[in-house]
Fold:
Amino acid sequence: MIVRGLNDAGRQLFVDWLQHRRPGDMPPGELLDGDLYTTLLGIDVEVDESLVFLNRFNFGKYLTEVFSDLDPQKVLAAKMDGLWDWLTVLYFSQVGRKTSKYWHYSVTRRGHSGSLAYRHLVRTSYEMYWRHGDSSIVMLHVDMSTGGEMAEQLASRQNVAYHKGFIGAAHALYWVDGKLRRGAAGRVKPQNKRKPGDKAGRGGAGRLALAVRRLCRTYDTHVVPGEQMLTLLPKEFSSFVVKGASAR
Structure:
């Protein structure tokens, strides 16, 4: 099927539908084709709507291959948001199995705390795979309908999400033997809720983001090889450093 994009009216109809849908509902069929709610984008690209994906990593890899002849920056630009919403409609039987907030399905540039575009299940699958390749599995290993705590912690800040060394280090630390290591997505409790000696969340992805920001004060971390970045991390990450592990 040749890719299309939702126009403004189509995007609004989609958001309105999302806010009232019930489990098992599918988007209105007119959001897939026709000139009332969709538009051709001048992109000579076909996608296979019959494909079923194991996880968002495989989906992101597929989309990166499909759009390989296009400029990723242009594909990710705001004027192409309708493309990602249309793709969401096309694969909604997979991405919409859970009932979630509308911004997981419709690109939302303005939220209560800034842009929520990183939470779009389809767009972020493509962007993270395009930027980080195999290392993106640390964020995208979840099923098609799940945002995931690792993606929330690693992709919510541009300076982190775009940092190849950081994501490479996260992959080396937290993805071992084809699965996410226990504690990788843990969060440190606020000090007033933490019991003495409670180390839950220490060395996790959220703390890694903080550690890399601190390293930026001393190093140009964008040119520091991933392997060296692992050696520069504080001791709290020692339990996650696997002997012989290397960052991509």
